[in-house]
Amino acid sequence: MKTLAALILLTLSSTALAAEGSAEAGKVVFKKCTACHNAEQATNKVGPHLDGVVGRPAAALADYTNYSDAMKEEGAKGLTWDEATLATYLAGPKKMIPKTRMAFSGLKSEQDIADVIAYLKSVKAQ
Ligand code: HEC
To answer: What InterPro entries does this protein's entry cite (predicted)?
Structure first.
């Protein structure tokens, strides 16, 4: 029983940890993305701008004309960028969407992923 309780506690606390990101740390992680993405301005680069991306459907920007067919299909099927889908995409863009045009191998650290998502949430609607 004790072991079970400890296991449950451990699971609960690691879930809570994984969900908590620091926007400040995420701004530093985002330097890996700035060659292709703006987040604080709604201006596209090689990649679509990420201002307000949390809660936005995939491939939703009308003024970004370089979405892959794969991304447009995901958007049409209902993919929305929330914490869970962003975490999966950022861990391995091509694992989630094999034909995505995003030439980025992925973030290795779960903490970096949580942080960068916290940062993206923090720039929303600014
Ligand atoms: C080498 C350029 C490049 C880098 C680096 C890059 N991206 Fe991208 N990103 C793209 C391109 C191009 C697309 C469009 C992909 C498609 O249509 O398949 C994209 C798409 C996205 C999308 C989907 C946006 C939408 O409107 O559906 C998100 C979210 C995203 N990138 C986040 C990031 C984050 C966060 C990083 C850094 C950890 C990053 N990207 C690094 C080029 C890049």
So the answer is: Cyt_c-like_dom (IPR009056), Cyt_c-like_dom_sf (IPR036909), Cyt_c_1A/1B (IPR002327)
Q: State residue 115's pLDDT score.
A: 98
CA distance 60 to 51: 12
Instruction: Choose which residue among 30, 37, 99 to substitute to test ligand 1 binding: the one with the highest number of ligand atoms within 8 A of its C-beta.
Output: 37
Range 75-94 burial, b when 16+ CB lie within 10 A, else e: beeebebebeebbebbbebe
Q: Does domain 22-122 have CATH number 3.40.630.30?
A: no
pLDDT, one tens digit per residue, over 68-118 is: 999 999 999 999 999 999 999 999 999 999 999 999 999 999 999 999 999
Question: What is the whole-number distance in angstroms between the Cα of residue 57 and the centre of ligand 1?
Answer: 14
Q: Are 39 and 30 in contact (CB under 8 A)?
A: yes
- The domain segmentation of the chain, as residue ranges, is 22-122
37 Cα to the center of ligand 1, angstroms: 7
